[in-house]
């Protein structure tokens, strides 16, 4: 049995008197690729925000490699090995592509504040290491030829690719992908499916994926968790989820449209 990378127990969160997540329980093994789905407002992104420390859970526990995350600030959680992307792009569009990746890498910097302020040799050495590592990642992601162009100049699909590349620059243990296919055309979605599979295999990383496009979820996730009204209503393989009456009623609908999204 593989070791546990993420264990969530009894996770509950209220916004005022509104319960956004209730008694949420999840266990992920190291190296797992898991999908988290549900209708709009089900609480999926709230779960991501609780894991990353954007919100502090009202009740419950979130453990990464046995380390309790509840109560820790986001930068500490990032340093412990959690990285994420967002529903909407959060790139620094006016900065070069390579600088966007290097910013993600600074979490693993070897020099301190004094070296940076005084521009000591350790600072320049560290910056060279950032650039070298960033270029290695951009090469792997097929973006090396765009390294010194503004991030905003990339086609939309490549901007999404860059965002995942930047998240991986921090060498995370757990990668959270929040609707990475949002706004993509069919070819970009197909490229994304291949990219997620490649990232999972190449980096040997645990991935938790939120996505509305069933084509993506069913194409890459061997295990899927379904939420509705802040609670888990189903768990299982793609086949089990597709045939689960409660899931069909709550989320999937009787039919799917041509894009592979829930009707």
Descriptive report:
- With 263 residues, the chain is of the alpha/beta class.
- It has a single domain (4-219), classed as Rossmann fold, CATH 3.40.50.300.
- 38% of the residues lie in helices and 24% in strands.
- The chain has 10 helices and 10 strands.
- The chain has helices at 44-51, 74-80, 97-105, 113-118, 121-140, 156-168, 186-203, 214-220, 238-242, 245-252; strands at 4-15, 18-29, 33-37, 59-64, 67-68, 82-84, 174-178, 206-210, 223-228, 231-236.
- The strands form 2 sheets. The protein has a 6-stranded mixed β-sheet, sandwiched between helices. Strands 2-1-4-5 form a 4-stranded antiparallel β-sheet, with helices on one face.
- β9 (223-228) and β10 form a beta hairpin.
- α3 packs across α5 (121-140), α3 runs parallel beside α6 (156-168) and α7 (186-203) packs parallel to α8.
- The radius of gyration is 19 Å and the shape is globular.
- The two termini are 38 Å apart.
């Amino acid at each position: 049995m593989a070791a546990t990378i993420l264990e969530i127990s009894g996770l509950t969160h209220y916004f005022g008197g509104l319960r956004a997540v209730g008694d949420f329980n999840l266990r992920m093994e190291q190296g797992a690729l898991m999908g988290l789905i549900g209708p709009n407002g089900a609480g999926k992104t709230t779960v991501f925000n609780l894991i990353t420390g954007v919100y502090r859970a009202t009740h419950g526990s979130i453990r990464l490699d046995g380390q309790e995350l509840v109560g820790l600030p986001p930068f500490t959680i990032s340093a412990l090995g959690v990285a994420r992307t967002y529903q909407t792009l959060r790139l620094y569009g006016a900065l070069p592509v390579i600088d966007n990746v290097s910013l993600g890498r600074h979490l693993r910097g070897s020099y301190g504040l004094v070296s940076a302020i005084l521009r000591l040799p350790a600072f320049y050495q560290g910056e060279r290491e950032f650039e070298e590592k960033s270029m290695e990642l951009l090469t792997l992601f097929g973006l090396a030829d765009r390294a010194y162009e503004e991030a905003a100049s990339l086609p939309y699909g490549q901007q999404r690719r860059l965002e995942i590349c930047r998240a991986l620059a921090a060498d995370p243990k757990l990668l959270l992908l929040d609707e990475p296919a949002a706004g993509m055309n069919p070819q970009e979605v197909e490229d994304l499916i291949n990219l997620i599979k490649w990232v999972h295999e190449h980096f040997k990383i645990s991935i938790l994926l939120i996505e509305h496009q069933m084509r993506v979820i069913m194409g890459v996730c061997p295990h899927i968790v379904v939420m509705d009204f802040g609670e888990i209503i189903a768990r299982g393989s793609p086949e089990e989820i597709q045939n689960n009456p409660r899931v069909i009623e709550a989320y999937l609908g009787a039919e799917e449209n041509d894009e592979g999204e829930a009707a």
